Amino acid sequence: MLTISAGHYGKGTGASSYMDEGEETVALVQELGKKLRQKGVKVNVIIDKQSKNQLQNLAYIVKQHNATQRELDVSVHFNSSPTRQKEGIGTEVLYVNPSISTFAQKMSSEIAKAGKFKNRGAKQRTNLAFLNGTAKKAILIEVCFVNSVQDVKLYRSNKNHIIDAIAETLTSYFPNTARSVKSAPLQTPNKQTITSKALQQKAEALFQDKEAVREQLKQGVQIGAFQPIWLENFELGKLTFYDYIALTTLQYQKNNSNM
Ligand SMILES: [Zn+2]
Predict the structure, then answer these.
(1) Which residue range is the domain that position 229 belongs to?
(2) Residues 1-41: tens digit of each pLDDT
């Protein structure tokens, strides 16, 4: 469904300041791959362990992405600007194909929210080998800036939230998966629901016949199916329909075991 790659090719091969881009992207992408698989997303993870320079690396990443079956290409980087600074700089997500700009915007804002970074938003870039070379729609995530004390601090303390947010947002790109994963609990019927309307009406009619219910509960108490408190609750109008169903079940069991 999608292919993700770590920018660069290991420690010391990307931007380096308060943290090392090449090292962090590999760790992030490996973790992201695991989380996506847990969510039922089919993901190819590309980590370059063979290139010797940046040109080889870009060619390798593009070639590997294009060799996979997928609908979306994603590469993860950390950003850098010329001078070290204390203040936060933030998250941005780059794209070239305008049809993915809304998704890039969403990705940027979700990462910024999870990491408490400034949201620099989606930016169209027409000169990046990854965006131009990959055949499918693509985004390049710049998580935050390695030369900002604040960004690095935020990244370190919110790392799990950030990776979760990326995984969740990528999953949302594939509505079928998102639906099948998210709606699974909804397909389990509400426990306090009778799934047949007709069955419910019949049982409720029995529950409405107060005299018959009273006789039934008396018999239940007599045979020791349940405590007298339930008969008292009934007289006080505190017995619910579901209590009644449960008590009836206990009574049925007791009657049968006595036979
Ligand atoms: Zn980079």
Answers:
(1) 197-258
(2) 999 999 999 899 999 999 999 999 999 999 999 999 999 99
